[in-house]
Write a structure and sequence with these properties.
By secondary structure, this protein is of the alpha/beta class. The protein contains 15 helices and twelve strands. Strands 3-2-1-4-8-6-9 form a seven-stranded mixed sheet, sandwiched between helices.
Length: 379
């Protein structure tokens, strides 16, 4: 039985509209990490915090990142692990920390990563083993933090009664492809995962994580095995959030755009390599990744095509509704998370198309064994 095109267009338009309404509700209920005031610099009595920075070939980032970590209020120690860098990362880090007694640069002199581990998880595990804090704050080298970011994150973690909190940084973009694709990071989970339900029920399937800036209650982190629990996970941050929830601990992702900024990729080629290393595994399987890409294209690419090309006035109208709903959801997320609104929000069909293409490339490279990151092959 052939389904009339009007029914298809109406269904997609209504679905995109319902998701846009859900995005608005999520944005309104998403907790926000605010910078602490100048005089409010203590995370609380008897709180020790270890700030942990894994760094491999980060000479282009660490000179921006590390000074902001050294200026953090409330940090007991700042540990940098030079993860077998082949550039000047170690030398730059040592120069920057030499005047701060809280800070140290750890050197990795091993020749290989243990079997079953990926590089970042192994680096984070070694940092955690060396840390003394009862709170562990992992920060990526492409992130810069407000001086009050640490205190804000720890206080919000306690206010929400969670053991893992990820203040999602503002994502900085400068190239055509980064402006197309990067806004989908926050938009995706704010559109498809109900924030209030996720917080209340703490289902592992609804867990969201972000390793760019992730803060843990150290005993809870160690109780689940730390990064050893996700040793081989390409998306170790999401894996840790799920492991924490499965063990009965609570996790949360919050809006951290006021206290943290991240420029993940300087060039479009870096973005392609970064996304394709993990998109094949984003839903747990290649088939699931293709299914998500297909669903996104149905919801956010087909309606504008209907609006632009159909001869049926009703099909065009429903297509316009679907396109407008997609744009509206992007506007909501951009305003909530400090991203640029225009013209990025208008490019939603192109963004989804680019994301879908990256998914296909990721699966292709994975099957051919061509995935690499930071100069290391991925299994």
């Amino acid at each position: 039985m052939r389904i009339p095109l009007r029914v298809v267009a109406a269904t997609l338009g209504l679905a995109a509209t319902a998701l846009a309404v859900g995005t608005l509700r999520n944005a309104r209920s998403l907790p926000v990490a605010q910078p602490s005031s100048g005089a409010d610099t203590s995370p609380g009595p008897d709180t020790t915090i270890s700030v942990l920075l894994p760094a491999r070939n980060e000479s282009g980032n660490i000179e921006r990142c590390l000074p902001t970590l050294l200026s953090l209020h409330g940090a007991t120690e700042i540990l940098v692990l030079d993860d077998q860098s082949t550039d000047d990362t170690a030398a730059i880090a040592k120069r920057l920390v030499e005047a701060d007694p809280r800070a140290a640069v750890l050197q990795d002199n091993s020749t290989s990563i243990p079997p079953g581990w990926l590089g970042k998880s192994w680096a984070c595990e070694r940092l955690a083993q060396a840390a003394i804090g009862d709170v562990l704050a992992f920060v990526d080298a492409d992130v810069t933090l407000d001086p009050g970011a640490l205190v804000s994150a720890v206080r919000l973690m306690r206010e929400l009664n969670v053991d893992m909190i990820c203040p999602y940084p503002e994502q900085l973009t400068s190239t055509p492809l980064t402006r197309l694709v990067q806004p989908l990071l926050q938009w995706s989970w704010l559109t498809f995962i109900p924030v209030t339900t996720s917080m209340d029920r703490q289902l592992p399937s609804m867990a969201v994580g972000n390793g760019q800036f992730a803060v843990f209650n150290a005993p809870a982190y160690r109780s689940v095995g730390g990064h050893a629990a996700v040793a081989g996970d390409v998306l170790e941050d999401v894996g840790l959030a799920r492991a924490m929830r499965r063990a009965g601990y609570r996790t949360a992702v919050v809006d951290g755009s006021a206290i943290a900024k991240c420029r993940m990729y300087e060039t479009d080629s870096e973005l392609v390599d970064g996304y394709t290393k993990s998109l094949w595994a984003a839903t747990g399987s290649e088939l699931g990744a293709l299914g998500i890409a297909g669903l996104l294209k149905l919801l956010y690419v087909l309606p504008p095509l209907f609006a632009a090309t159909s001869r049926d006035r009703n099909v065009r109208a429903w297509g316009a509704v679907g396109y407008a709903a997609g744009v509206a959801s992007r506007v909501v997320v951009a305003r909530k998370t400090g991203q640029r609104v225009w013209p990025e929000a208008l490019t939603q069909p192109l963004s989804v198309t680019a994301f879908s293409a990256l998914t296909v490339i990721s699966i292709w490279r994975h099957r051919r064994g061509e995935l690499r990151w930071k100069g290391r092959p991925l299994p």
